[in-house]
Amino acid sequence: MSQTASAPTSPPIASGAPPRRFTWELLGVLPFFLFAFFFLILPTTFLIVGGFQDAEGRFTLGNIRDLSHPTILKAYWISIQVSTASAIGGAVIGFFLAYAAISGGLPRWVRPTLMTFSGVASNFAGVPLAFAFLATLGRTGLVTVLLVSLFDFNIYRTGFNLLSFWGLALTYMYFQIPLMVLIMAPAIDGLRREWREAASNLGGSAVDYWRYIALPVLWPTLLGTTLLLFANAFGAIATAYALTGSSLNIITILLYAQIRGDVLHNQNLGYALALGMILITGLSNTAYIVLRSRSERWLK
Amino acid sequence: MTRRTIGSWAVMTLGVLYFFLPLLATFEFSLRYRRGVYSFEAYRIVLGDPRFHETFLYSTLLALATIVVGVLLVVPTAYWIQLRLPRLRPTVEFITLLPLVIPAIVLVFGYLRIYNSSSILPMTANDRTTDLLLMFSYVTLAMPYMYRAVDAGLRAIDVRTLTEAAQSLGASWGTILLRVILPNVQVAVLSGAFLTFAIVIGEFTMASLLDRPAFGPYLQLIGANRAYEPAALAVITFAITWGCMALIQVLGRRAPGKTAGAH
Amino acid sequence: MGLLEISGLQKKFALSTAVEHFELDVARGEFVSFLGPSGCGKTTTLRMIAGFETPSAGAIRIDGVDITRRPPNRRNVGMVFQSYALFPNMTVADNVGFGLKVAKKPSAEIGPRVQEMLELIKLPALGSRYPYQLSGGQQQRVALARALAIQPKVLLLDEPLSALDAKIRVSLRNEIRAIQRKLGITTIYVTHDQEEALSLSDRIVVMRDGRVEQIGTPFEIYNFPRTGFVASFVGTLSILRGQVVDPGRGAIAIDGQEILASEGLAGARAGEVRSVALRPEIVSLHEPAGSGNRMRGTVEDVDFLGSIVRIRVRFGENAVSLDTFNNPNATPPQPGQAVTVSFPREAVLVLEGPATG
């Protein structure tokens, strides 16, 4: 970047004294910053601050303490569990899918098709997704019925229930896996074929290659994307709402109920709830960014 | 080599099963309205439902407004950052990451508290202003994708040279943005637009909490109360989303200076 | 019986044949280049030796052992790639020692060997650096050290200098040759740059469209090319077409002027159209010595290249390039000037096959 913003460098066409030009430029991005302030920073700050206040506006840590209420803790815990399960499941399966399509020796058309589909599927969530899974693995779903009629195997007798923790995690994976595929594809591209050949040429087996080269190069992106997937699932609500309703009390549903009708009977506790969520997703995403930049440095 | 290919095909097949069976099942389910016979009755009911029309229209209009405001907000900003203010780039990129980090429900919670009837900016005072608030919420949701698309599009064309050429020919900033920059990034803008549309159409949380008659809450309502119609709606929604994304892919291949590939 | 024997090697793909009828015996310690344009099959052949491609037919033997079907990690050949292919997550030292680590050698052995290799490539202090911190030339030297660390029987280099700046190319290629000589390791070097091949090799294999055109020492390839392709690919050449006048005498008429070739026209028939080639350094602007050939023509172009002056003389349909050393006491001829050129009979290279070029 040869141009710096603040130095009054010679403008292409003189249209007033340099200082005025300088303000002009900032004016150009002012709407954006105003927007960011009013619709991102202000609301978030408000909630965070509110979490530390009581009903009269005085500073208190009481809300934070009240977060340890069993219902709330349970809600956080279930959310964390569902997010972790769908993140790890999505990461593992997504990685294998991406690798198979890119380096797996499959025909050329497989990769673009997978990418296009992943682009669509990563946005497919909410009621349509919940219903799709109900139609597949619900009690009268297509697969359930097929398994009974073909193999005399009723999955519901094994204790499986779509409207449960595992059912939700499985449903979440429908958009987690494509997201993983989309993000991992460039990283897998970055695994140059010559490294595999060089490793082999020097006497290494496939295991050696993965152990010493491929996994070390990939793990920041793998871990980072898993964290991204975690945050993605943690903040989701529409799918869960449609699938399990309020029977599975994840934190977003609890917050939803709180916003709608103050079920916790404490406004500020709601803020604390939000604060907890921001903390968790914030940490997750920060770790993702840090890991990403680390792997980029190696692969310059 | 062949052992690896077999493994790859196995993984692919499992993937295809996982992703297509639900779609198939939904479609099959949506045809079951009439007992014993396959028919499109559920679709007919859904498409004939006035609430479907209202909410779909509402969401579409809102999506269009979101796109316009989004473009107006993002394009000049991305342009200025690339051209004159590279030092602000990290800050702007951080801001574009915020909607991805902060869950939508938290954001709308904040909006409800700050912009309710008893605050300085009473945006929930009446329906129209609430619509405005919802639109701004959607702009926030779509902003990361829109910014990334436009930024990539601007990077693919040489912004500085184009601007200098236009200036040497006497163009003002407005003319430059409108007549020179925008046409050259229209593919990127359209990609962002279709993505915004897909996001807005299906969005539930914000519309529901702001109590507006959008398509997302309508989907939830039908889903909670009916059996076969939600399946039909799911198929319709998926077709729309797929249509948008396919258009983005097609557009992406025709962008200047870009080769085909996923975003 | 050479160290590396390749017989009947062939590689066919679904729609094309990449390599055909490849035969070569490489002696121990010999430096052989595969030279040819892109797509001629030289890299495919190299990759078959390394084991990354499976031959459709033929055999490859190293030290008497048939390795044709062996997987690439059990061949004990060292490969240097065009793109260096250093492992980005490892230091230079770890990269160089990778082959030894994978062979489960004790670390007491690996350390000194790595240091020995680093000194061989003259980068002893860079052991703890990462590839992204090195220049292209440094990375390629590390790649060489890495390939040599496992003491391979054969060293394979796939256009190792193509990705580097011109200046580095010359110094690095000399270094590679010096190391190769010092270690006495049998080497195959793939390149499309004929200057590289000529300056480095003990022998050159010229390839085209999957087939071997000629195998010989640089001197042989340059001075006695067997086909028009070899002649034009290696060094600059003028190619002239003419009609055979008298095969017995070796007479052929170029643009109406008869010249004699001391050999090569024996199998031709009178009236046939044939091509002959002349090296620029062989043609001179003086009257012929003894029974040499002489032709009259007009100067078309004069290129002052510093120490060499390259002059093109046109006869009619044909033209010849001649190189003469710069002489400050004699100005070169001007375009349009009528001149006489001469060249000995032995220098006329009759090209195989019907008229080419």
What's the helix and strand layout?
The complex is a heterotrimer of chains A (300), B (263) and C (357).
Chain A (H helix, E strand, L loop, with lengths): L17 H34 L10 H5 L3 H34 L6 H12 L5 H11 L4 H10 L13 H25 L3 H9 L4 H29 L3 H7 L6 H11 L5 H32 L2
Helix pairs in contact in A: 1-12, 3-7, 3-9, 4-7, 5-10, 7-9, 8-9, 9-12, 11-12
Chain B lengths: L1 H29 L10 H8 L1 H34 L5 H13 L2 H11 L12 H30 L2 H10 L4 H12 L1 H17 L2 H5 L5 H11 L3 H25 L10
Chain C lengths: L3 E9 L4 E10 L4 E5 L6 H9 L6 E6 L2 E2 L10 E4 L11 H11 L4 H14 L15 H14 L4 E5 L7 H18 L2 E6 L2 H7 L2 E6 L2 E6 L1 H6 L4 H6 L4 E9 L4 E4 L2 E4 L12 E6 L14 E12 L3 E7 L4 E7 L12 E6 L5 E2 L7
Parallel strand pairs in C: 3-8, 3-9, 6-7, 7-8
Antiparallel strand pairs in C: 1-2, 1-4, 4-5, 9-10, 11-12, 11-14, 12-13, 14-19, 15-16, 15-18, 16-17
Helix pairs in contact in C: 2-3, 2-4, 3-4
What is the subunit organization of this protein?
heterotrimer
SSE pattern of chain A, N- to C-terminal: HHHHHHHHHHHH
Rounded to the nearest angstrom, the distance between the terminal CA atoms of chain A is 18 Å
CATH superfamily of chain A: MetI-like
Can you summarize the main beta sheet of chain C?
Answer: 6 strands, mixed
Task: Please mark out the parts of chain A with pLDDT under 50 across 5 or more consecutive residues, or reply none.
Answer: 1-20
Average residue pLDDT of chain C: 90
Strands of the widest sheet of chain C, in order across it, are 6-7-8-3-9-10
Structural class of chain A: mainly alpha
Tally of DSSP β-strands of chain A: 0
What is the molecular shape of chain C?
A: elongated
- SS summary, helix count of chain C: 8
Uncertain spans of chain C: none
Q: Which percent band covers the strand fraction of chain A? A: under 5%
Text of the CATH class of chain A: Mainly Alpha
